[in-house]
Amino acid sequence: MRSADSFNDDATDRRLRLLVGLVVVVALCAAGGYLWFALRDPEPMPPIWLLGLLVAAILIANRVKVYVRIRSSLDTVTWGEAPVLIGLVVAPAPWVIMCAAIGMTLVKVMARTTPQKVVFAVAKDVLTATTAALVITAWGMDPDLAHPPFNLVAIITAYGAMSMVDNLAFWPVIAVASGSTIRRVASLNWDVKLVSQFVRMATIVFALVIISYGDLWLLIIVPLLVSCIHLWHSRRVNTREERRSWQRLAKATDELNAVDLTQVLHAAATRAAEIFSANEAELDMSGDGADRIVRATAEAVSFDGTAVAAEFRSSTDTTIDLVTHDGSLRLGVLRLHFGGRVTLTEFEQYKLKTFASALCTAIRNAQAYAELERVSAENAHAATHDTLTGLANRRKLYEIAGEVFSTRTNDGILALLLIDLNHFKEVNDTLGHAAGDDVLCEIADRLQAAALPNDLVARLGGDEFAILMTKLPTPAMASHRAESMLAALDHAIEIDGMQLTIEAAGGIALAPGSGGVEELMRRADVAMYQAKRSGHRTANYMHARDTADVGRLMLGAELRRAVDNREFVVDFQPIVDLGTGEVVSAEALARWNHPQHGNLTPMEFLETVERSGQLAAFADAVLDQSLGALGTWREAGFDLPVAVNVSPRSLLDPRFPQAVLDRLQSHSVSPDRLVLELAETLTISQLEVVDRTLGELHDAGVRLALDDFGTGVSSLSVLSRLPVHELKINREFVLAVETSSEAAAVVRSTVDLARSLHLTVVAEGVESEPQRQALFKLGCVAGQGHLFARPMRSGRFLATLQRGSAGRPGVLASALHETGSVVRMPRRRVPGHGRSSLPHLPA
260-263 long-range contacts, Cβ below 8 Å, gap at least 24? Predict the structure, then answer.
């Protein structure tokens, strides 16, 4: 089966044959007519030496050329008309026409061109010579070797006629052969060609003046002049082409400086076809998981698709691999298709390599940007969507609701439906979490199917869902929509061949006049619990039944479930040596992974925990996770102490010390690897039981730290009472240490006090490098904060340690000093103060 290229080649050949035939017919008719007219009054044959000289001049003039390539064809500039026109002045026209035919035949035969090109070239020269002869005859100029006539107007007219006929015969043929247009061929270097035509005409006139009015030996000047002009013309054409070529290359490089891969490939293909005067440029990106081919002409992209869909190209004239600078990666192939055989010059080959190198860089940049966009989009989607159900999460719900609140108009009412599944925990406990996940996904699909286009369905966590309804016509429509949404859950759900019926309760809240999204969510939450208590499927928020303590009471009721379900989790923040950047310890920070409310900080639930009777279980859960993480790090080669915050109420429990020691023993952790952080309050130093509790822990080897030192009303009295090992500077002083002399003085005095008591100082809330350097200069040896790392789960904490910084595991920041410039005090037990594991600066 023939390809499209073969059909195109056949069509081009047919058009070329028609054009060549037309030129031959016109030339034969013109020459035949003129010879018939001239032979009626034949002139004597000129000397043989003159005819030989004329043939030789025509041969030489047509062999010396200036080449300008247009795709697969060459546009040449020669001096062939000069000897013909001079010959018509000194010899009879029929003999000059014959010499022109013989000379051009010899030129083409010596060049070993095809018969078709020989016929065309000879016919064209015969036609132009006949045209000039007709003009000279019309002006009445009789050729005479002894006294050549000279008529400036006739000579200029004859030359113009020759040039016009030559171009009219040549432009269509070169346009068809190269797949270009006559206008493009004619306009190529038109200004240089115009100057060249003028110079050649002036040279011919000058030569004829010498012949007509001077001695024949002066003709020696003519070849010299012609040679100089030809060299000037060649250099000018080549210089112009090189300048334009580099300009086009620079423009193409600018267009390749894009971040969209399609834009880069399209620009590269079209510019490659233009710069290298190719019929078509092809970028083949197939291989290594990619399957894409882009083809384009200089005007437009002709194909962009897979290799299977691309038409087969039977021949490729020029190919260059797209390889990165280091040769480690091959991106594809750039192919240049021409209509015939083309050999690029050394300059064009260098230009092609330059273009390919720029294209490689552009493709890699576009691919990197596309990958960055993809990862960013995935992260953005993951940050705003639930990973299990694909619904929007709490963050997305707050974001959309916030936008609606900020742009509220009179086009409807905003309402929120909060849905909680009843007894969903029984599904997880009975059938397993996998079955529970299947149920949640089915619930999500049903809610999404029942939602209207303007609704936003979200999963807030656990078995709690929310539907944000906008543009409701009336408040009553919110209740109607809520009933229809919950009705979608009535049908049984089939899980592993079992039919499960899921019941749910929903709370409806209309957009409040103030309070924004948070208040809307709170009201819907209150309404949902009202529905649960009343046994109804839905309930509307009623202000009269709302109390300020509803949320706290709910949290209190859920504490036992939270402990049983291990909803309390621990994040860890590294404590770093400020001088070396090395991680020397970690602080455990408790979080409540609440099914409905997301991650809650101790500020939100600790008071409720302390008053609920679940404090001991909560403290044990946090300690157990902290010591478990410590053991994991130790097995990985990072033996770090861990600091755990202790509630003052835990110190009132006489069972607390033994509970801590039991946990240490169960995890095989040495007591000196645990740091208990104590809040600085008045009551701590005033209670006898606290002293006994801390004394037992201290004697067992557990290290103690005083948190937020300097913010209490009796810091020194507390410090003198407690057997602590570390002082932690409050973040308020750290934030102001650069700008406030008072804060710097507090830090300096704390460091001096700690040094005199052989205590370690840790700065909290280090946010910037200038803060770190200021603290280090003041003598503070350790710190924690977002400058080094945010709190993270145990696994990620270990990965961060292993990754380290600058190829150094366990290091999160560059050192502030060269190795060996800081003298560390040896670790030793200080009487009454235990063992310090953090580095000390020299006194």
Answer: 260/366, 261/363, 261/366, 261/367, 261/370, 262/304, 263/366
Helix (H) or strand (E) holding 770: helix 769-777
Domains of the chain: 9-214 (1.10.1760.20), 257-376 (3.30.450.40), 394-546 (3.30.70.270), 558-639+793-827 (3.20.20.450)
Alpha carbon 675 to its chain centroid, in Å, reads: 46
Q: Is 26 helix (H, G, I), strand (E, B) or coil?
A: helix
Alpha-carbon gap, residue 594 to 462, rounded angstroms: 8
User: Phi and psi for 623 in degrees, rounded to 5?
Assistant: -65, -40
Reading the block at residue 218, the tokens are: 């002066």
Distance, CA of 285 to CA of 292 (rounded, Å): 5
Considering the entire predicted model, what is its pTM? 0.39
Give pLDDT, residue 515.
64
CA–CA separation, 216 and 221 (whole Å):
10
* 427-483 per-position pLDDT tens digit: 777 788 888 899 999 999 999 999 998 899 999 888 899 999 988 888 889 999 999
The whole-angstrom distance between residue 626's C-alpha and the CA centroid of its chain comes to: 40
Residue 771's contacts (CB-CB under 8 Å, 6 or more residues apart) are: 734, 735, 737, 738, 785, 787
| Residues with Cβ within 8 Å of residue 680, at least 6 apart in sequence | 706, 707, 708, 709, 711, 712, 715, 718
- Give residue for tokens 């932690």: 728
CA distance between the termini of the chain: 92
Q: Which residues, other chains included, contact 594 with Cβ-Cβ below 8 Å and sequence gap of 6+?
A: 461, 462, 555, 558, 562, 567, 600
Cα separation of 740 and 184, whole Å?
Answer: 75
Q: What is the pLDDT of residues 497-510, one digit of tens each?
A: 788 888 899 999 99
Q: What is the mean pLDDT of residues 366-387?
A: 84
Q: What is the structure's pLDDT at 819?
A: 53
Q: Which two tokens stand for residue 174?
A: 């070169």
Tell me if 659 sits within 8 A of 620, measured CB to CB. Answer: yes
CB-CB contact of 66 with 237 (8 Å):
yes
